[in-house]
Amino acid sequence: MPVLIDDLTGPRDTTGALSIDGHGAPRLRLLLTPHKSLTPEGFVWFIGATAVLIAIPLISILGNPVFWFLLPFILGALWAIWAALKRSWRDREVREELVIWDDLVRLQRHEPRRKTPLDWEANPYWVRVALHTRGGPVENYLTLQGGEREVEIGSFLTPPERLGLKQTLEHALGAIKAPT
After folding, report:
1. Which of 15, 78, 82, 169 is most buried, by CB atoms within 10 Å?
2. Domain stop point among 27, 57, 91
3. What's the number of domains the chain is made of?
4. CA distance linking residue 62 with residue 45, whole number of Å
5. d(C-alpha 108, C-alpha 72), whole Å
6. Using CA atoms, how far apart are residues 75 and 83, in angstroms rounded to an integer?
7. What is the pTM of this model?
8. Half-sphere exposure for 24 (CA within 13 Å, toward CB)
């Protein structure tokens, strides 16, 4: 779900108090993260409920040698579910940070398995927001075009969230391109 960190489209601070990287105060700063539907408490409840549901049929063979034969497989299944959910959580730790200044647009994508973030920068005057309704890897595929590359943004967001993001980006970039 996109998180609006700062919407600084109003009066500008020219003193440099909010300056980031020497570009002055940013016009817009967004932090985009995927939605995580399973909370840590939900994880504990899910694993506990799964263990109980798997254990119910085992009650009938308690004390039987078959129980000891089945136990490693049941524990292995619980471990596999636990490991798969933890892996899914790590994969959802991706985040994108977009900062728009009057003279620069910077997009950084932080992925859990990459040590360094992926960076993209361009002059905001030449940046174009493109929404690909067909042919993209996801519905309403959103890209930023500018400089030498076209980069995707918010691929983990829902289609309505990408539409809202497109409007937010066009508004911020339009304010820069508009004559003063």
Report:
1. 169
2. 91
3. 2
4. 25
5. 45
6. 12
7. 0.70
8. 13
| Amino acid of residue 123 | N
Tally Cβ neighbours within 10 Å of residue 109. Answer: 19
**CATH at 171:** 2.30.29
Same domain, 99 and 117: yes
Residue 118, SS3? strand
Helix (H, G, I), strand (E, B) or coil at 1: coil
Statement: residue 157 has pLDDT above 60? yes
Gap between the Cα atoms of 177 and 109, Å rounded: 25
44: domain range? Answer: 40-91
pLDDT in tens, 70-111: 999 999 999 999 999 999 888 888 899 999 999 999 999 999
Q: Where are the alpha helices (DSSP H) in the chain?
A: 40-55, 65-91, 159-177
d(CA 123, CA 160): 27
Query: Does residue 69 sit in the same domain as residue 148?
Result: no
- Joined together, the tokens standing for residue 73 give 């497989």
> For the purposes of burial, counting CB atoms within 10 Å of the CB of 156, is it exposed (0-12), middle (13-18) or buried (19 or more)?
middle
Picking from 28, 24, 6, 32, the residue whose alpha carbon sits closest to that of residue 171 is 28
Q: Are residues 80 and 98 in the same domain?
A: no
